Amino acid sequence: MEPDMILVTGGAGFIGANFVLDWLAAADEAVVNLDALTYAGNMENLARLQGDARHVFVHGDICDRALVDRLLAEHRPRAILHFAAESHVDRSIHGPAAFVRTNVEGTFTLLEAARAYWNTLDAAGQAAFRFLHVSTDEVYGSLGPEDPPFAETKAYEPNSPYSASKAASDHLVRAWHHTYGLPVLTTNCSNNYGPYQFPEKLIPLVIANALAGKPLPIYGDGMNVRDWLYVGDHCAAIREVLARGRLGETYNVGGWNEMPNIDIVRTICALLDELRPDPAGPHARLISYVQDRPGHDRRYAIDARKIERELGWRPAETFASGIRKTVAWYLTNQDWVAHVQSGAYRDWIAANYAGREVGA
Questions:
Q1: Model confidence over 75-93: pLDDT tens digits?
Q2: What's the CA gap between 139 and 150, in Å, rounded?
Q3: Which residues are known catalytic residues?
Q4: What is the pLDDT of residue 72?
Q5: Which of 250, 252, 321, 355 has the fewest CB atoms below 10 angstroms from its CB?
Q6: Residue 323 and residue 274 in contact, taking contact as beta carbons nearer than 8 Å
């Protein structure tokens, strides 16, 4: 009998790479890692797995049905963990077509391939198989200051091309379970942060800009609130859902860390003042407010009581401990940052911040 194996999509990206690294650090079960290596997919994220026979990397597109069929037939995974996604709101505003293709068409292709593969399994194999879809809290829309956090029963109200495409993929996953019986699980997470995050997102962008003495761009008044989840905690939650989650269910994964963006930036500045002082003065002097982006959701917050009640998961990191680990990682991995910045990152910065007024 062949050993167990899982198939991970998007495993060279931020969350996917962290998951693959954590998975192989904790267990010997092999991983087939399918990634298209678009702008945020980075093989340097997986450098420590070079020569590890448990990690089988495949450069390919989740929309390529023939490729997905071949991988499933060849490797016979017991689960598919679907991380692959276009995932940045600003990028979706500039180019929504890529988000529909990857997040909607790609998820549909995977579901159809998984269904065909699942139907070839014997009864025990079908009972053991899982399709775990990794999604976002942004599908739920925006919250007012006094609204309760997002529960799994919250109606979907996506407000950006990105969140609309992820909402569509969530609906497809649900439908393939209810219509075809495919054994699916869905997780909706809050804002992740941690090692290997592409520096278009707030936290790595602020760290990189602060170290370079560049302005720290803050949208609007800086009071947009997010719930922040350390990526290692997110990976642990996914492992629990895969192992023990109820079929067809959705589990919200949050960090219990609601904070306005401006407080995040000031926290990073204070850590950098401590760990890498700038002779020119406190890093907070670099804070600059820029024109808000269109349709910027005001507040997200996750009610993560269901996953704690059913599966016993709670985040291990506080924001204070997680952000310190994150800043320290970026300080000791400046080569990784430089390699990312030398490519598509600069093109994104130019496209996204061109024409925005920078104020005090």
A1: 999 999 999 998 878 888 9
A2: 10
A3: 137-138, 162
A4: 98
A5: 355
A6: no
Task: Please give the Cα distance from 31 to 307 (Å, whole number).
Answer: 25
CB 146 within 8 A of CB 255: no
* Helices 106-118, 65-75: crossing angle, 10 deg rounding: 40
- Distance in angstroms (rounded) separating the CA atoms of residues 199 and 206: 8
Q: What is the pLDDT of residues 273-327, one digit of tens each?
A: 999 999 999 999 999 998 887 878 889 999 999 999 999 999 999 999 999 999 9
Dmax (CA) of the chain = 67
Q: Does the reported pTM lie above 0.85?
A: yes
Residue ranges of alpha helices (H) inside the chain are 14-26, 65-75, 89-94, 96-99, 106-118, 123-128, 161-180, 202-212, 231-244, 261-275, 305-311, 319-332, 334-341, 344-353
142 contacts 300 by C-beta, under 8 angstroms: yes
Structure token digits, residue 75: 């490797």
5-193+228-256+296-317 adopts what CATH topology? Rossmann fold (3.40.50)
Q: Which residues are bridge partners to 131 per DSSP?
A: 80, 184
Phi/psi for 140 (5° steps) reads -85, -10
